[in-house]
Amino acid sequence: MGHDSKQITQSKAVNVPNEEEDNDRDTAYFQYYALLSHQAQMLQDSVRTTAYQKAIFGHGPQCFQDKYVIDVGAGNGILSIFAAQAGAKRVYAIEASNMVERLQHFVNASKQPQFDGSTLNPWLGDRIKPVSSKMEDVTVDTLGDGVEKVDTIISECLGVLLVHERMCESFLDARDRFLKPGGSVLPSSGTICLAPIEDKVVWEEAANKARFWDNRNFYGVDVTPFSEAAWEESFSSPVVGCFGPLIVLTPSNDYQIDFQTISKENLKRFTIPLSFQMTQTAVVHGLGGWFDLHFLPLPSSSPMTGATFADGSDTSTMIPDLEMSLNQGSDQPSSNNDATTLNMSTLSAIADLAALNGNAGEPGMSDTTQLDPSVSSTYMTTSPYATPTHWQQVRFLLREPLAVNKGQTLIGTMLCEVNQYRSYTLTAKIQIQGSSDIHSQRSAQWRLDRQIYSWSSAAPAPQ
């Protein structure tokens, strides 16, 4: 039973887990984040760590100097530490995993003399207060110090495609209950980016996993009764892994989530409109996804201007000579694209290029493609056009690839709804605009918590 013998179906309803299952899932989640090995992986992501350092130091006088701060999901405390370095009076480092014990040890070490009489990080003092709690369980009494509201809330609440793991809701909970009027949240917004991809290599990897169950004579056994479930499972699992820009067929559609204003309810269910104008004939194997992150406008008097960081980047905007596949002057992408050669200084140019290709101004699309340093102090991206991060990118594969001609437009929607697995269920419907042929339509559903990984970085399929 091959994949082409079945209509595309949405995943069947799953049993809603009970409270005990939820608690077990939370326990496993927090145990994972209590591992120093995992914390090191995040710290060593220089794109991530440098972006936050730039944002915090760049807004030191505005958001941190002599301010009260909450760090949601503090982990190893790196954002709390940056906030303390930026002059925060007190940082409440909220952490639900046992990593909070490591952080408390770190804080205590700054107060204890070493054998030679010196102290570690003496500037830290009493600036950081680790708090062992989920953000939702924090109260004014938990914070102590008589503090009811804080000036700034920071968090690295991000997962695959921005929203996986649902930590953004905890970020918003802190904002709604503890932020002073006129206070600041960092990051201030995030952008989900989606684009059609042609990736036969990874599509075949997914299909081959399902094809095993098409076997009618496996040790004398017909296993095809498992086949339909196998195809459904294989193509409802997002594929996480870096991919190069060569497989991206059009500029992305960008959907902005404003952490300053969005409600928790609106974050739990939202719809991303899709519209992709094809500039080459291609086979669409699915959608590629990534996210961008934005912080508050950088004050013109900020001491960050011209600063240089450990990664060698600075706060100036340099526009390199970009020969990218989104330059739609030819049907074949440039061979000079290498995701690892671009750094954060190229991102403004990438955004300008996307705007020139027609994303700006479309209904439901983000206008953050036009951001520059005068609008956003730090613009971090997990795009395939930039330095890879530990989030990588994600492929959402169609069970039935869709052939699209040059000049045609793919339209549709992606509905994003929270599920009970600390994640989202994504339901997409796409079709070739102007065609009523059922063969030009595709429906698919993916569970973002059912991620699988691929180390293939595929080039475009042969034409």
Structure at a glance:
One of its GO terms (molecular function) is histone H3R2 methyltransferase activity. With 463 residues, the chain is an alpha/beta fold. The protein is 24% helix and 24% strand.
Describe this structure in words.
Keywords: Chromatin regulator, Cytoplasm, Methyltransferase, Nucleus, S-adenosyl-L-methionine, Transcription, Transcription regulation, Transferase. Residues 189-298, 369-431 form the Protein arginine N-methyltransferase domain. It comes from Meira miltonrushii. The protein has 463 residues and is an alpha/beta fold. The protein contains twelve helices and 16 strands.
Terminus-to-terminus distance: 28 Å
Largest sheet: 7 strands, mixed
Would you list the SSEs in sequence order as H and E? HHHHEHEHEHEHEEHHEEHEEHEEEEEE
Q: Return the CATH class of the largest domain.
A: Mainly Beta
Structural class: alpha/beta
Number of domains: 2
Annotated CATH topology of the largest domain? Hnrnp arginine n-methyltransferase1
Task: Tell me the number of strands.
Answer: 16
Total number of helical segments? 12
What amount of the residues lies in strands?
A: 15-25%
